[in-house]
Amino acid sequence: MAHDHDHDHRHKGTHTHAHTDIDWAEMADHLESQAELFTPLYENALSWLGKEVTEPGLIVDAGSGPGVVSCLFAEVFPGARVLAVDGSAPLLDRALARAERLGVGDRFGVLAGELPGALDELDYPADLLWAGHALHHLGDQRAALTAFGERLAPGGTLAILEGGLPSRFLPRDIGIGRPGLQARLDAVQEEWFEQMRTDLPGAVAEAEDWPALLNSAGLKHTRSRSFLIDLPAPASDRARAYATEILTRFRDTIGDGLDADDRATLDRLLDPADPASVHRRSDVFVLGARTVHTAVRPR
Q1: In this predicted model, what pLDDT tens digit does every residue of 45-73 receive, in sequence order?
Q2: At the N or C end, where does the chain have fewer CB atoms within 10 A?
Q3: DSSP the chain
Q4: Residue 10 burial by CB count (10 A; 0-12/13-18/19+): exposed, middle or buried?
Q5: Is 41 exposed, middle or buried (0-12, 13-18, 19+ CB in 10 A)?
Q6: Where does the pLDDT of residue 14 fall: very low under 50, low under 70, confident under 90, or very high at 90 and above?
Q7: How far apart are CA 137 and CA 16, in angstroms?
Q8: How much is the mean pLDDT over the chain?
Q9: Shortest CA distance to 70 belongs to which of 131, 9, 150, 15?
Q10: Per mean pLDDT, which range of 8-12, 112-116, 131-135, 220-224 is the poorest?
Q11: What percent of the chain has pLDDT over 70?
């Protein structure tokens, strides 16, 4: 499953729990840049949603962060009002500013508060509620899905972005260190992710059978589809910066779980003066998959 967003926070949202000391407002530029890099993936996902979610009146982006995807919803669904919900007021300010720049500010609003309780403040039920990489930051995911479903209008759709495949940036053999570095990073990251989940307030262990969990929340007609981000080598400056940021976060958050050789390889990859670094090598790419699961509230 794709958990690399838990180090790079690709989910765009902010969930200020005790398990993290991250200053989300300080990460705003980084969050925006990454979401913009993944815009082709999000556009494909929204196009898929649009084939069944026709003419929604209210779209809610739960865990919106600085609003990159929220604004995409406003553009893809020109008749909808979009509400960005997040725990960080500074990030919501950026979302509003972005909506104004893109000319969708007249149908764009924000709501500050922690999920899922903030959704109690909705004036109207949502025709489409999107939660992109937000659910796994909530201790009781089953209860959160039930709360999300209760905020849907009859016939409304809940769409969650969870899982997929971890991003890849480099070939298996990169000419330095032991081949297979990213696979070993994945293994250590999975341990980090499980500890993060365990440490959440009110954490409840759940098998990540998202369609079954959506059904348990009283929703029907589940669907799942994965979407690809494929930015081949040689990487653009933005893609290279993204790879550098992810690997830097891996080193800072899970580096202690690597052996000395892998840590040394990671240090070389992140040293701008090293010809073998991701700053300078020609084989850097971005390849990954993200999965969207949807379900409908019965009429």
Answers
A1: 999 999 989 999 999 999 999 999 999 99
A2: C
A3: ---THHHH-TT------TT----TGGGHHHHHHHHHHTHHHHHHHHHHHHTTS-S-SEEEEET-TTSHHHHHHHHHSTT-EEEEEES-HHHHHHHHHHHHHTT-GGGEEEEES-TTGGGGG-SS-EEEEEEES-GGGSS-HHHHHHHHHHTEEEEEEEEEEEEEEEEE-S-S--SSSSS-HHHHHHHHHHHHHHHHHHHSTT-------HHHHHHHTT-EEEEEEEEEEEEPSSPPHHHHHHHHHHHHHHHHHHGGGS-HHHHHHHHHHT-TTSTTSTTT-TT--EEEEEEEEEEE---
A4: buried
A5: buried
A6: very low
A7: 9
A8: 91
A9: 131
A10: 8-12
A11: 92
Q: What is the CA radius of gyration of the chain?
A: 19
Tally Cβ neighbours within 10 Å of residue 205: 8
List, as one string, the DSSP characters of 188-235: HHHHHHHHHHHHSTT-------HHHHHHHTT-EEEEEEEEEEEEPSSP
Tell me the pLDDT band of 30, cut-offs 50, 70 and 90.
Answer: confident
Q: Which two tokens stand for residue 158?
A: 């809940």
C-alpha–C-alpha distance, residues 294 and 129, integer Å: 10
For residue 293, give both structure tokens. Answer: 């699961």
Tokens of 43: 């556009």
d(CA 140, CA 151): 17
Once rounded to an integer, what is the mean pLDDT over residues 217-231? 97
Instruction: Say if residues 263 and 178 touch (Cβ distance below 8 Å).
Output: no
The one-letter code for the residue type at 56 is P
Phi and psi torsions of 230, nearest 5°: -135, 95
